[in-house]
Write a structure and sequence with these properties.
Chain B: Keywords: DNA-binding, Phosphoprotein, Transcription, Transcription regulation. The complex is a heterodimer of chains A (about 400) and B (about 220). Helix content of chain A is about 65%, strand content about 10%. Chain A has about 400 residues and is of the alpha+beta class. Chain A has a 5-stranded mixed beta sheet, with helices on one face. The longest helix of chain A is centred in the middle third of the chain and has 48 residues. Chain B folds into 2 domains: about 140 residues, Rossmann fold; about 70 residues, Arc Repressor Mutant, subunit A (Orthogonal Bundle). Chain B is about 55% helix and about 15% strand. Chain B contains 11 helices and 6 strands. In chain B, β3, α3 and β4 form a beta-alpha-beta unit. Classes of the chains: A alpha+beta (about 400), B alpha/beta (about 220). At the A-B interface, α6, α7 and α8 of A face α1 and α6 of B.
Chain lengths: ~400, ~220
């Protein structure tokens, strides 16, 4: 996995991370944060003093000036924050504002509010964390000089100093995450291009579903009916033929082939068949699939009855495909399927105790699965060490 | 016997009519939708109703609903339903009518096995219960836990018994002696806590009732 943020670096390799640039970058992030706070508070403190010391007219005029300055400085500080965040996190794009709508855009007012918060409270916290990591240990080292009995405080100081890289990175990551949440673009601010992609994707999924339903219907009403009718004709012909004649053997062979073809067609339709889904909902359809699976499957689905149809069909596809994979490749003795719905996500987990080593690149059904999940805007994760067990986790958005 | 056939696909309907006539039955009406089926049954009073679950194709399960309506009106009317794919829910809705006698639920594909299908139709018309092996499999699988106490042999016997086979037929299919089958039947009835004295059709119903008591899922 590519490491893109200080938090990820700390999380992936907690010890090796000390040798990387991340702790230093986090330190730089906090120092610049605290410094920015000092500058801003300094700049604002001078006119504020005027507020307190001057008469009423001066106070009113400075108050007006202060508000104007805040409004002017806010977006500027936001630009700085977006630059600074690159020290510990991925680049943060600015929200796109239609030209001329600067003072109407909610993102502008978020910037102003965050600038105030960042330059005061957050800068103060930056200073506190820096102080706890470096200043406090130095003070503690000095304490035995005043009182020899206070030597245990030296140990506390050492511990604080040793923990400093993690403390600093933890807070830097948290601060960057907060910045990203407030200053990052949301919804329509992501820009017109992305909205287009999203609608195209929805259109694609919709078209895919329609097409699938059409194919399934055509197979049922066309090919399958015809094959069965042929089977009836063959069967009736067979009744009129002497058991020991040559045509009898040929007819039997044809009927056997036809039986196999019908079986294959049934499986094919079953793979495409969202009919059960439309009739009885996702939980029933999946339970049905779980029952068909040759490997014993424990299904535990707690999902709302009314999911958006494209999400339901993606979830169904994921689960059936996963079960097929388990039956074909895993050699598992047992599997389980769980489905949960959180605020705006459906989370599916499929586990099996098979041989593991599943690899989406190896051309099993997994790459198709990953594609389908991506198409629905979801997230697909797989853990399958050699020797098992395998866990497949899919998160689908349904907001 | 006199049969009413309801199937919306013309090709299939003609095949069914030809098949039934070949086995000496009379098709008194061959229709293509549920209202026509209800009308034909009221008018003709057939010995057997043969209907597709979905009519018209790709629509809802109006055929199944018509079958349930007919059975509710007249619980003794034998009805054989054909389905594209297995829906245990549908099979169970049918079994709940008229005590489950004179009911058949088969996959459409089975029609291609003409002799087997004709036998199934005759069995349903005679008040028997015929369930597609696929449905039985799913019912058995649903009861995985208690069924797992059975030996593989006993499970095979249970499977066939649920399809309405007699001990003689089971013996023939599994290449066992009659005595061996009786022994398996006795032991699995004991394991499943079923009344051992039930015979013939009552036995099928007992087994099905037990399988279904597993509840959905």
């Amino acid at each position: 996995m590519r490491i893109a943020t200080a938090w990820q670096a700390m999380d992936q390799r907690p010890l090796r991370f000390l040798l990387t640039a991340w702790p230093w970058r986090s330190l730089a992030y906090l120092i610049t944060g605290a410094a920015l706070g000092v500058v801003v508070v300094g700049v604002f403190a001078v006119p504020s003093a005027g507020l307190v010391l001057g008469g009423v007219p001066l106070a009113v005029s400075t108050a007006v000036l202060l508000v104007a300055a805040t409004i002017a400085v806010g977006p500027l500080l936001a630009v700085l924050e977006r630059h600074r965040i690159r020290l510990v996190d991925e680049p943060l794009p600015a929200p796109s504002r239609p030209p001329g709508s600067r003072w109407r855009a909610p993102s502008t007012w978020r910037e102003i509010g965050f600038a105030l918060l960042s330059a005061t409270g957050l800068a103060g916290l930056d200073a506190c964390v820096l102080g706890c990591s470096f200043v406090l240990p130095v003070l503690l080292f000095g304490s035995p000089a005043d009182d020899p009995a206070a030597w245990p405080l030296v140990i506390v100081g050492v511990l604080l100093l040793v923990a400093a890289p993690w403390t600093i990175t933890a807070w830097a990551g948290a601060r960057a995450a907060l910045t990203r949440t407030v200053l990052g673009p949301r919804g329509t601010e992501l820009g017109a291009g992305l909205a287009d992609v999203a609608t195209t994707r929805a259109r694609l999924v919709g078209a895919f579903e329609t097409e699938r339903a059409r194919i399934e219907r055509d197979l049922h009403d066309g090919a399958q009916q015809r094959l069965v009718a042929v089977g009836v004709s063959l069967g009736l012909a067979r009744l009129d033929v002497d058991d020991n004649s040559a045509p009898a053997a040929r007819l039997d062979d044809a009927r056997e082939q036809l039986g196999l073809a019908l079986g294959e067609l049934r499986d094919l339709i079953r793979g495409l068949d969202p009919r059960m889904l439309a009739d009885h909902g996702l939980a029933a359809a999946v339970t049905e699939q779980a029952r068909r699976c040759p490997v014993p499957v424990e299904a535990d689905l707690r999902l709302p009855d009314r999911l958006p149809p494209e999400i339901a069909s993606t979830a169904y596809f994921v689960l059936t495909e996963a079960l097929t994979n388990i039956a074909r490749h895993s050699g598992a003795g047992a599997a389980s399927v769980s489905g949960r719905s959180h605020a705006d996500q459906v989370i599916l987990e499929i586990r099996d105790d098979g041989r593991g080593g599943a690899d989406p690149a190896a051309g099993s059904g997994l790459d198709g699965l990953a594609e389908r999940v991506a198409l629905a805007g979801g997230r697909f994760r797989l853990s399958s060490p050699a020797g098992g067990p395998t866990l497949l986790r899919v998160e689908l958005p349904c907001g | 016997m006199r049969v009413t056939v309801a199937e919306d696909a013309v090709l299939m309907r003609e095949g069914l009519v030809a098949l039934l006539e070949r086995f000496g039955h009379t098709v008194v009406a061959a229709v293509g939708d549920a209202p026509a089926l209800l009308g034909a049954v009221r008018h003709e009073r057939p010995d057997l109703v043969l209907t597709d679950v979905r009519m018209p194709a790709g629509d809802d399960d109006s055929g199944l609903r018509a079958a349930v309506t007919l059975r509710t009106d007249d619980p003794t009317l034998p009805v054989l339903v054909l389905s594209q794919y297995v829906q245990p829910v549908a099979a169970e809705a049918l079994l709940d009518t008229g005590g489950g006698t004179g009911i058949g639920y088969l996959l459409k594909d089975r029609v291609a096995d003409v002799t087997g299908f004709a036998a199934a139709a005759a069995q349903v018309a005679g008040g028997g219960t015929v369930l597609d092996p696929e449905v039985v499999h799913q019912l058995v699988r649903r009861r995985r836990d208690p069924v797992s106490r059975l030996s593989p042999r006993e499970r095979e016997v249970l499977d066939l018994m649920a399809q309405g086979r007699s001990n003689g037929e089971i013996a023939e299919l599994l290449v066992l002696s009659g005595a061996a089958v009786s022994k398996h039947v006795r032991s699995l009835f004991t394991k499943l806590d079923l009344p051992a004295e039930a015979g013939g059709h009552r036995r099928v119903l007992a087994v099905l009732a037990w399988l279904r008591s597993g509840g959905p899922g």
